Amino acid sequence: MVEKSRGGPQLIPRPSDWQPGPPPAWAPAIGASRTASIKEIEGLLAPGLSPVVDHPDGPRVGSLAAGSVPAHGSSGHSAVAVLFAPDPTAAAEETEVLLTRRSWNMRSHRGEVSFPGGTYEVGDRSAADTALRETHEEVGVAPAFVTVVGQLGERSTFISSRRIFPVVGLLQSRPSVQAEAAEVDAILHVGLTSLLHPDCYHSEIWQFGGQRRVMHFFDHEQDTIWGLTAVILAEVLGHVFGPSVAEAH
């Protein structure tokens, strides 16, 4: 049986001088028969997580820094929800991550795969508030169903100074979802081990302002995941399936 081609219709602005990039931190796990339950995910991610500050005026511990929250209405801060749930379709204990494909009618980043999330708004006490509020608006998952366990490292995009905070949350089961049609083309439940397919991941070296950057790409079943979403997924896979984990199996 011939496997269908991987990747999707996302437009990649690949420069003409790109070069092949290095193998990933989880290379030993690629193609291996590996699973990871929700409990295992929580434990393996724990060393890479920072606490979430309850109020943006609190001390800096990986969340919104004291004095750094922009004036109300500013677009300087964003947060995304990195949500893990048990995969009900898997034979063994397996974990999936919730992603969205943005609407093809959006003015920017149309059709790209992303974590649910968005910009800080008045009333958000923390990055977690922002991420979960936006998740509820985009895919219908209520904050009450999410157990927030911490934050991954603060990120920014190459083309803007926007600060983005990835908030990690756990769900006891795959949630009921409803896409907000104006923003979301599709809701994707992506099994973590599906990202270990030998033909799924590759990296490239791109030049930005004279600096070499490693760009991550996941050619999944019907989509190519790249950009900040791929950066965060690469961090997750490094924690969950990296060399120290592989040596323990």
Tell me about this structure.
This protein is of the alpha+beta class and 249 residues long. It has a domain at 34-56 and 71-195: Nucleoside Triphosphate Pyrophosphohydrolase. 17% of the residues lie in helices and 27% in strands. The chain contains 4 helices and 12 strands. Strands 2, 3, 4, 5, 6, 7, 8 and 9 form an 8-stranded mixed β-sheet that branches. The longest helix has 15 residues, at 227-241. The protein is globular.
In summary, what is this structure?
The chain has 249 residues and is an alpha+beta fold. It has helices at 38-45, 127-139, 227-241, 243-248, and strands at residues 19-20, 77-86, 95-102, 113-114, 117-119, 147-151, 155-156, 163-170, 184-191, 201-208, 211-219, 224-225.
What is the number of E strands?
12
Low-confidence stretches: 55-74, 245-249
Rg estimate, integer Å: 18 Å
CATH 4th-level superfamily of the domain at 34-56 and 71-195: Nucleoside Triphosphate Pyrophosphohydrolase
Structural class: alpha+beta
N- and C-termini, Cα separation: 31 Å
> What is the average per-residue confidence, as pLDDT, rounded to a whole number?
86
Text of the CATH class of the domain at 34-56 and 71-195: Alpha Beta
Oligomer: single chain
Number of helical elements = 4
β-strand amount: 25-35%
What letter string, H or E per element, gives the SSE order?
EHEEEEHEEEEEEEHH
What overall form do the CA principal axes indicate?
Answer: globular
Q: Give a quick account of the main beta sheet: strands, pairing sense, barrel closure.
A: 8 strands, mixed
* Corresponding CATH architecture of the domain at 34-56 and 71-195: Alpha-Beta Complex
The fold-level CATH name of the domain at 34-56 and 71-195 is: Nucleoside Triphosphate Pyrophosphohydrolase
